[in-house]
Amino acid sequence: MNLYFQLARQALNVGVKVLGGVEGSVIAVPRFICADVPETLRRLGYEVTYYDTTPDLQPDFHTSAPGCDFLVAVNYFGFPVDIEKLTSQWNIPYSRIIEDNAHGQYSRDSQGRLLGFRTRVGFTSFRKTLRTIDGGILHVNDRDLESLLGTEALVPQARSSSPGLLFRKLANQIQRTTHLPIMNLARSIKRTASRGEVASFDPLSASPTAVSQASLDRLQSTDAESEVLRRRGKYASIAPTIDSCGGRLMFPDLPLGVSPYGIPFIATQDTANRIQRALWWNGLEVFSWPDLPRDCGQVSEWQRQVRIVSFLE
Predict the structure, then answer these.
(1) Where are the domains of the chain?
(2) For residue 25, how far is the Cα from the chain centroid?
(3) Which DSSP symbol is given to 81?
(4) What separation in angstroms does the CA of 62 have from each of 100, 199, 201?
(5) What is the pLDDT of residues 57-97, one digit of tens each?
(6) What is the CATH number of domain 163-194+208-310?
(7) Which residues touch 222 (CB under 8 Å, ≥6 apart)?
(8) Which of 153, 196, 275, 308 has the most crowded CB, counting CB atoms within 10 A?
(9) What long-range pairs does 168-177 form, CB within 8 A, spacing at least 24?
(10) 3-class secondary structure, 51
């Protein structure tokens, strides 16, 4: 069962609740994660603890399992986390794992299973895959839990596209046809203007709100197979450039079934700049990911050097 929300953080909010989360529940998330996730959970009344990941973006099973009521397992950039190891080596049951598939729309694991559907509750942010005004999905894969969702099935709303989204769509179309780096310039200007600013958390943004009808229509009209082929083709064509410029691909081989959000790699700032220059006229941008939580503690050097080239069009 899928429920559609304005934002993925709203799907996460409802997902924790249907699993039985209450104020004070302890939720484990990776130390290497976008700050929005722990911040959302903490503002909703949950306690947050962190666990480590390895450079292949899997939980570090050489460390002890985190003490928690629930654990958020992340499919980074559309590459599947090993759910089975979480249950076998850390002894965390499926019923307590929430599959964070924010980057993994259309992606599958080695067994052909769609990501986001491998535990009782998962969520996806399809607006990170398709250029839409909004779009988060809660995947509920347990009939016993579906009965708890009657009041959460929100009706899609007629919500107008923002001027910013309309500009990005136009700029992206011009960039694809002319190879002029309009989107790259716009992103660079925005990033420079916002440098040093800290995004404030809006508690209401985690309250359940329906997805816009336009975003849902875009999702339902997209040819998934063609989109996956486009993304895999981009990965294959860009990987040699990153490699030749000195970047270290986090996934040198693209597993069968994966629909990559982009192409992640590790690089110093000088190397990242060199790769950006090589990709500039292809309309592609290199950026750092993620904005780490302030309270995540000490992170590894490689985590501070992760870069991504997004395939969002």
Answers:
(1) 2-150, 163-194+208-310
(2) 23
(3) P
(4) 22, 34, 34
(5) 999 999 999 999 999 999 999 999 999 999 999 999 999 99
(6) 3.90.1150
(7) 130
(8) 275
(9) 168/131, 169/131, 172/131, 172/283, 172/313, 175/283, 176/283, 176/313
(10) strand
Measured between alpha carbons, how far is 80 from 57 in angstroms, rounded to an integer?
9
Task: Look at residues 139, 83, 88, 92 and name the one whose alpha carbon lies nearest to residue 111.
Answer: 83
Residue 147 in this model has a pLDDT that exceeds 90? no
Would you say residue 313 has pLDDT above 90? no
Record the pTM.
0.87
- Non-local (6+) Cβ contacts of 308 within 8 A are 77, 261, 262, 263, 264, 265, 286, 287, 288, 289
Beta carbons of 104 and 260 less than 8 angstroms apart: no
Q: How many helices (H) and strands (E) does the chain have?
A: 9, 11
Q: Amino acid identity of 127?
A: R
* Torsions phi, psi for 237 (to 5 deg): -80, -30
- DSSP notation for 88-107: HTS---GGGEEEE-TT-TT-
Cβ atoms of residues 218 and 132 within 8 Å: yes
Distance CA 313, CA 311 (A): 6
Q: Which residues is 262 bridged to in the sheet?
A: 310
In this structure, the number of other CB atoms found within 10 A of the CB of residue 208 comes to 18
Give dist(CA 307, CA 264) in Å, integer.
6
Q: State the pLDDT at residue 207.
A: 78
Confidence (pLDDT) at 57: 97
CATH number for the 2-150 domain, one of 3.40.640.10, 3.90.45.10, 3.40.50.300, 3.40.50.150?
A: 3.40.640.10
Q: For residues 226-243, give the mean pLDDT.
A: 98
Which pLDDT value is given to residue 196? 43
- 186-203 pLDDT, tens digit each: 655 555 554 444 445 565
